[in-house]
Amino acid sequence: MNVLLAVASRHGATWEIGASIASVLTARGQRATLLEPAQVGSVDGYDAVVVGSAVYLTSLLPDARDLVERFGPELQARPLWLFASGLASPSSGARTTTELAALGDQLGARDHRLFRGRLDRAGLSFAERVAAAGVLNREGDHRDFAAIERWAGGIADELEQVQAERARATA
Ligand SMILES: Cc1cc2nc3c(=O)[nH]c(=O)nc-3n(C[C@H](O)[C@H](O)[C@H](O)COP(=O)(O)O)c2cc1C
User: Fold this and answer.
1) To test the ligand 1 pocket, which listed residue (7, 20, 21, 55) has its Cβ within 8 A of the most ligand atoms?
2) Are strands 31-35 and 2-8 parallel, antiparallel or unpaired?
3) Looking at residue 6, what DSSP letter applies?
4) What pLDDT tens digit does each residue of the chain (171 aa) get?
5) Overall pTM surpassing 0.90 (yes/no)
6) CATH numbers and ranges of domains, the chain
7) Which of 119, 144, 148 maximizes ligand 1 atoms within 8 Å of its Cβ, making it the mutation to test the pocket?
């Protein structure tokens, strides 16, 4: 199947999570295309979609939200997965979890997941350091690639089921 991974990232950490998911899907025989949301002009030709976004100021990035606005019905019509990555604690990240769950419900996503991200203070502008005050104490790479790959493996399992159902329906 052709799978679109549309991933909004500012400093690359979430993009690398998308790349890791894409490699798992490719290793499992799917065709995965990783794009920034702004590069997505159409979802025609994609059988399934994974939308990912970094979390900034408790929210998904505008490019990810804009993609959902532009293609809502098309995303709803396809097997869809959502993920975000951030560094807030579960309590201070509650707003993000709620946003992700609401988006998942709205679009009928098969699953949504919040992964831990990466923060490199040296790569931030002064304004970003000020804005990131609440998470600056979490500097470092907290991404759990084993968990990310397990999640991607679950997506691959479901895609295989969808393929098998479609093959049965056309037999
Ligand atoms: C300015 C700024 C604000 C942030 N705000 C949040 C936040 O509200 N909640 C959260 O979970 N993480 C927050 N983070 C952490 C980022 O989500 C985390 O570093 C993420 O992995 C960055 O992904 P990226 O490299 O793809 O941009 C913030 C980071 C920065 C620099």
Assistant:
1) 55
2) parallel
3) E
4) 999 999 999 999 999 999 999 999 999 999 999 999 999 999 999 999 999 999 999 999 999 999 999 999 999 999 999 999 999 887 778 899 999 999 999 999 999 999 999 999 989 999 999 988 888 889 999 999 999 999 999 999 999 999 999 999 998
5) yes
6) 2-170 (3.40.50.360)
7) 119
